Amino acid sequence: MAETRYIEGQGRYALAEMVGRGGFATVWRARSFGGSFTRASDVAIKIIPVYSSQERSRAMREGQIAEGLRHKNIVETIEVIPGDTEIYLVTEYVRGLPLDEAARDYDVNQVMNALAQVLEALVYAHAQGIIHRDIKPQNALVDGRGRVKLTDFGVAYRAGDTRLTRIGYAVGTPGYIAPEIMDGADPSVLTDIYAVGATARTLLAYQPQEPPRRLKEFIDRATSPNPAHRPQSAWAALKLLTGRRAPAPYPSKGAKKAATREERRVAGGLPEQVLRLANGVAAGWLGYQLGTDLLLQNGAQVAGIAAGLAVAGFLLPRLAALGLVVALAVLLFRNGVGLGFALLVPMLGGLWIAGTGSSKSASRCPLGPVLAIPLTLVGLGAGLPLLLGALMRPVGACVSSALGAVTLICYDLTIGDGVLPYFGVPFQKVSGALAPMELLQKGQDILQAYPPLPVLAVLWAVMAGVISVAEWTGRWTAGLVLAVGAGLLGYALVISTTRNSLIEAMTSLGLAAIIYGVLRYLGSRVRG
Q1: Can you say how many angstroms the Cα of residue 515 is from the centroid of all Cα atoms in its chain?
Q2: Cβ partners under 8 Å of residue 320, min gap 6
Q3: Three-class SS of residue 32?
Q4: What's the pLDDT at 369?
Q5: Which terminus of the chain is more solvent-facing, meaning fewer CB atoms within 10 Å of its CB: N or C?
Q6: Cα separation of 109 and 215, whole Å?
Q7: How far is CA 520 from the centre of its chain?
Q8: What pLDDT digit, counting tens, does each position of 352-400 carry?
């Protein structure tokens, strides 16, 4: 009986059986004792013989790269143990099969799910500045629960590292190496994406039927000989394959330099900037209204106030919104407005701005509900739910849109002409000199006279929620159809009382839907 071999590191490992052999290393199942383990458990140990300082550097580098990666779809590296003539990489032991063996029993949906898990691992690794360079079915293990785990970072490339391979020497496995690498190009995220496409082609060899259109398009684009025709990042490839929104890139020490411009944008940069821009527009419009209607200043002064508030709304959304609420409260008191509005408006505004802290997207655009007024003035008010739904998370989008409907109604009953947009019902305007109880009674009278008023807030919230969920899942086309359909039904069956008001609602919603659809389509095409 052969004597058990032990390897000493942070823990003590007893080699049990060889489970794999490659050109430069062997992989063993081992039992761990001590170290970070409270009880004996199985681990995998990759034993890499080293005969030169260069080989030692390459092996240690593999271990250091793998040690820094922590993701559910990447085999976890526990420790790296340097020896005199060998390097030992201790990893979790995955009880399962290589992907190429497991996929023999897969259907097409399982194949797509496995590929999606590989891409999720690459979204994370690429954000750390790590290029795997040897993606293939044999380097992905499938455990008993169907989870795919990427392994073997032996030839991985890390941004900023000195290359340990000769220039012009193609690293990887034939059949999975991108054409540009064969021509001497440097490795990039696009070379990994090519290898995932080649992996997909291999896995489909077990499928008797024609692959679905989405999978076929993914393979065709991912394995394009021209790198510019491939999805330009792992998250873009994941979205192309699955149609759902890819996870945000993961933070890392070197990610900012290594991540692509597109990855940084999807991490929240562009949506946040658009939200801030929308908030700046709302702040500038409010500043203009305050300047002309209440301060009665000349054109240059009003423009200065509006521009200043617009900049403040963009840079400091919640602080600028709070400042506007305070300014409005002061102006209401100074202009002899009744106690009802003088107390109600700043109180509700302050509560709303304080409450936006619970929603990151709403906190970037606390003045979003106010946009209902200028958008309505230019014939696009019914599109506010589409705008907020596209930019905000579901809860923030629903609440902001509902409050936008309420804001629009209150505006037309006080400052406007008393004819509510999209309703077509004329109301007697509400006097600004009302006391709190009188204002409350007036509101009750209006609701009793026309009960469908709150339906607009509910309808806008539903539309915004549908768009937001659709954006979140990557199915914006279906979301747009559902939201517009729900809006048209709501206006036609409940809200609009006249033919003209229904036409106004349908036109506004239709124009907003066209604008949203065109921008969303162009954006998806630009992102690949």
Answers
A1: 22
A2: 279, 283, 309, 312, 313, 367
A3: strand
A4: 94
A5: N
A6: 10
A7: 15
A8: 988 887 777 788 899 999 999 999 988 899 899 999 998 888 888 999 9
The three-state (H, E, C) secondary structure of 201-227, written as one string: HHHHHHCCCCCCHHHHHHHHHHCCCCH
CA 257 to chain centre: 20
* Cβ atoms of residues 430 and 439 within 8 Å: yes
Nearby residues of 139 by Cβ (< 8 Å), 6 or more positions away: 98, 132, 150, 151, 152
In one-letter notation, the amino acid at residue 331 is L
Query: Which CATH superfamily groups domain 96-259?
Result: Transferase(Phosphotransferase) domain 1 (1.10.510.10)
Backbone angles phi, psi at 210, to 5 degrees: -65, 135
How far, rounded to the nearest angstrom, does the alpha carbon of residue 334 sit from its chain's CA centroid?
46
Q: Which two tokens stand for residue 71?
A: 């993701």
Which CATH superfamily includes the segment(s) 6-92? Phosphorylase Kinase; domain 1 (3.30.200.20)
Q: Which DSSP letter does residue 475 get?
A: -
pLDDT attached to residue 250? 43
How far is residue 140's CA from residue 207's CA, in Å, rounded to a whole number? 19
Cα(516)–Cα(505) distance, integer angstroms: 16
For the chain, what are the domain ranges?
A: 6-92, 96-259, 261-366, 369-528
Task: Specify the pTM.
Answer: 0.53
- Token look-up 């709302």 returns 282
